[in-house]
Task: inverse folding
């Protein structure tokens, strides 16, 4: 079995650009025989008016092949409630790394991501449990954590 993560969104291209940089992923090329995803969708019978403008770049893949593919599925409605599922981007190094160093690593990554368009929602600093994380939202408001 294989699987992909599907994220509903309003502007797939915007999220492809953000998450490619955030995760070190790359845009997934369209299937063989199709120069763009738009051409592939049209060949599948999707009406042009449903596709909007552009080449419909809406998918990412892990260049190492280890991580799941991600599809940013365009939907008409805006995000309205908190995510029931979110990503944790683990950059701190785990509990074998001293908490002050993990805090620094997490804060540096959170700053990088805000420079790409994320927004900080809050942080969780629980030194007695050896935990530190920063909660962020991507450009469309989808929550995720940097740990």
Result:
């Amino acid at each position: 079995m294989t699987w992909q993560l599907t994220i509903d969104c309003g502007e797939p291209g915007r999220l492809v650009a953000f998450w490619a940089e955030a995760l070190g992923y790359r845009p997934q090329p369209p299937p063989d025989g199709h120069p763009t995803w738009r051409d592939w969708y049209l060949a599948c019978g999707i009406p042009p008016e449903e596709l909007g403008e552009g080449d419909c770049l809406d998918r990412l893949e892990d260049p190492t092949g280890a991580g799941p593919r991600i599809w940013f599925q365009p939907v008409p409605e805006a995000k309205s409630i908190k995510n029931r599922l979110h990503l944790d981007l683990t950059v701190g190094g785990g509990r074998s790394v001293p908490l002050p160093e993990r805090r620094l690593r997490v804060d540096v990554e959170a700053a990088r991501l805000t420079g790409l368009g994320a927004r900080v929602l809050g942080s969780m600093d629980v030194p007695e449990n050896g935990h530190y994380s920063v909660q962020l939202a991507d450009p469309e408001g989808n929550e995720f954590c940097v740990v």
Q: What stands out?
A: The longest strand covers residues 119-126.
